[in-house]
Specification:
Elements (H helix, E strand, L loop, with lengths): L2 H4 L2 H22 L6 H4 L1 H6 L1 H5 L1 H6 L6
Length: 66
């Protein structure tokens, strides 16, 4: 992607929206403690806070988590 394309506000907004959506999908469907590990250390992976927070949402969307 060239810098000229990113100067277009619509393209930039669309790109940021796609990146935010991908991040939300990763946090909701795939995260097993990786996102909070830099902040909480190993406790984030053993306690699995984001996983437990989004557990019902994962099942609602049909994503396997265990």
């Amino acid at each position: 992607m060239s810098a000229h394309v990113l100067k277009n506000p619509a393209v930039l907004a669309g790109t940021l929206a796609v990146l935010a959506a991908l991040f939300a999908l990763f946090a909701t469907l795939l995260d097993q403690g990786q996102l909070l590990t830099p902040v909480l250390g190993k406790a984030a992976q053993t306690a699995n806070y984001l996983h437990e927070f989004t557990h019902d949402g994962r099942h609602l969307l049909g994503a396997p988590c265990h």
